[in-house]
Amino acid sequence: MKKEEVDASNKFQQYIKMDSWQQLLLNLTVFSLIPAFCEEVFFRGTMQPLWYKCLPKPWLAVFITAFLFSLLHFQFQGFLPRFLAGVVFGGIFYLSGSLWLSISSHILYNSSVVLLNYANQHSQVNIISLGKILLNPLLLIVAALGMAILFFQMYQGRYKKYYYNK
């Protein structure tokens, strides 16, 4: 299975090769906008509300949907990070009640991958160095606190629409 995932990764690197800004725009559309929109409509807009109706706790619906989201990507080496991203997107949808907010977050996430690949291909940024900066523990703590504050504000009902009615 690991060989298949390496092969898939190599194919993706061939597809995402960008020699011009036009190819960058095409890749942003193909690898960012379209998948994020379709995945969010299916997983958060359709599947997650169905789980709300079947389960006693809405967060259980978020976790099950995130699990299926990661599982159906069929790339098991990246299962945990994709599962956590699914929890974040599902949490955003549940707490805000806005599918557009989860779609926008997913587009931002996918676009960052495409843009980092573009920058790396054009030697504008070293991905290894950038990874060391982004994985700085202080930066991670600040980002986690920021996300916690955002989620708390959404949970307090500033942006929440009530989808979960039992």
Description:
- This is CPBP family intramembrane metalloprotease.
- It comes from Adhaeribacter radiodurans.
- The chain crosses the membrane at residues 21-38, 58-76, 83-103, 133-152.
- One of its GO terms (biological process) is proteolysis.
- Pfam families: Rce1-like.
- The chain is an all-alpha fold and 166 residues long.
- It has one domain.
- The chain is 78% helix and 0% strand.
- The chain has seven helices and no strands.
- Helix 2 (21-54) packs across helix 3 and helix 2 (21-54) runs antiparallel to helix 5 (99-121).
Model regions low in confidence, pLDDT < 50 over at least 5 residues:
158-166
Mean pLDDT: 77
Q: What is the helix tally?
A: 7
How many domain units? 1
Shape type: globular
The secondary structure category is: mainly alpha
Short description:
The chain is mainly α and 166 residues long. The protein contains 7 helices and no strands. InterPro entries: Rce1/LyrA-like_dom.
